[in-house]
Amino acid sequence: MDAMPASVSIGLTTTEAPFIEDARSHGELYIRQPYELYSEENHEAWHKLYTRMMPRWEKYANEHFLKGISSLCLNADRVPKLDDVNRFLSPLTGFKAKAVSGYVPAFLFFDCLRNREFPTTITIRRSDKLDYLPEPDIFHDIAGHVPMHTDRAFADTLVRFGECAHTAAEMVSGIRDKDEQIRTLTSVIKAMARFFWFTIEFGLMRGRDGLKVYGSGLLSSYGEIQHCVESPEVQRYPIQLEWAINQSFEIDHYQPLLFIVDSFDHLFDLVGQLEQWMKAGKLNNVAPGEPGVDEADLRSFLDAAK
Fold this sequence. Notes:
The chain is of the alpha/beta class. It has helices spanning 6-10, 18-25, 40-60, 63-72, 82-93, 106-114, 138-145, 152-173, 178-201, 216-219, 224-230, 241-246, 264-279, 295-305, and strands at residues 96-100, 117-121, 204-207, 210-213, 235-238, 257-261. The longest helix has 24 residues, at 178-201. The radius of gyration is 19 Å and the shape is globular.
């Protein structure tokens, strides 16, 4: 009897997946989900993550998320197949999860949103390291982000955010001085990343029963979803665009400052305002600080601007 391939026994564990390393070595960003490679430990990690989050979602998550995760018919015991997720998701808003091998440069990421595609990580964290992961995994992406994509107003907001990236590329294409082009683009990308962080990833929303969570970074974190709503250490303020785009953040600890939106219609209007400010040059000189903007992000916008 032939031995089982090493990739099958290792599975699709974050930072430990030969399938992903091979895809990256060949420059493949958009990939298939090789479902047969998930190990039993991978499925056990999903089960642990999903079942322990359910009570906290019911208590802290916004109603749109709860409706969305029900609509997706996720199995608590098995890592989801993206084809199954899309079968339930696409008829609702036109969105679909799109498997990727790793980090997606900024313009390409936003362009995916514009096309109602969500770049989705297919690996999953180890079952003995459930609480913190600096990079996204399939639990963060599918259980944290994708349920929100079943809501029409939220989905339209993501599309509009993607359109902002095209506006940015068009804007910087008109700057002839290369140094000025890079400086301006760096500031604009930083502003967009901060806004995305404080809304899509770590946003709070007013609900009928008080503050509720809609940010995916919070929705996929067992500890922080409670901390962000209940802890007196967290500062929570109604969102102000000028504050959000100038506010730096760090990713390796619970967030000390969070912003509140009134509704997804409110969020949609804020993205429209962000785009108007971009056109008016108000994003060209945002405050320094995190996040950093790397070469791949800059290059993705410059390539689009050609």
